[in-house]
Amino acid sequence: MKDILNDIIAHKKVEVEQAKKAHPLSSLVRSVEEGTFEVRSLKEALVSSPTGIISEFKRRSPSKGWIRQTADAVTIAKGYQDNGASALSVLTDEKFFGGTRQDLHAAAQAISIPILRKDFIIDEYQLYEAKLSGAHAVLLIASALSPTRCKRLTEVARDLELEVLLELHDEREIAYITPLNTLIGINNRNLGSFHTDVRKSFDMTRRLPSDAVWVSESGISSPATVKELRDAGYKGFLIGERFMKEDDPGASLGRFMKSIPS
């Protein structure tokens, strides 16, 4: 597969500029300033959970195509929460992943666990969108940003009371970590080739700050792998496709959690 990350970012830049023309940043800032928002901590949810599963709502992916094209965000979000998810991740990229911010907003109204906006965030505009849509945390992907840009977005997110899950893929991206980054995700999937190898999470442990909360992302299909990752120091496990491809994603999560070795 060709390197698709560049295509995604190129499209995202156009998408954000179009959104700004329709709804200027100033109008979003004003709405945030005038609004009241519930703060839910993803970090605290993971630290206090015996399993730390971040269940994901995802309709499709560039590598697999449609997984669940007509999935309803509220139904699946409730199912995840009812079956013990620590948090919910919602894909809001429409072109490549089939998601929308409306999915995020609807889920936020329906459940009480923290919600992560998972998207390719390149502009502070998207942080204000996330806040107004009901997100409590956002994903920042190191490979999609410069270190300076990533730091700036992290600061803006902090000011908006949005937690940041900083996503790394290899040791070269360790330099992106600042004292503000207390939630660090290791993506086992290469966003260029979409090749997945969960050993990436194990290999990165020696370079991660011990005072941060670590999250392993992608390619986790076995309850035994969760146990091994927990033993290695991880507190969070982002799992989407494993559940979304089942008839009842929430029930699938429940069975998965019961099978995690103690």
Features:
8-stranded parallel β-barrel; globular; TIM Barrel; 41% helix; alpha/beta
Brief overview:
Helix content is about 40%, strand content about 15%.
Topology at a glance:
Elements: H1 5-22, H2 25-34, H3 42-48, E1 53-57, E2 60-61, E3 65-66, H4 73-82, E4 87-91, H5 101-110, E5 115-118, H6 124-133, E6 137-141, H7 147-159, E7 163-168, E8 183-187, H8 199-204, E9 213-217, H9 223-231, E10 236-239, H10 241-244, H11 249-258
Helix pairs in contact: 2-6, 4-5, 4-11, 5-6
Molecular shape: globular
Cα end-to-end separation: 38 Å
The helix/strand class is alpha/beta
By CATH reckoning, the class would read: Alpha Beta
The proportion of strand residues reads: 15-25%
Count every helix, treating DSSP H or I runs of 4 or more residues as helices: 11
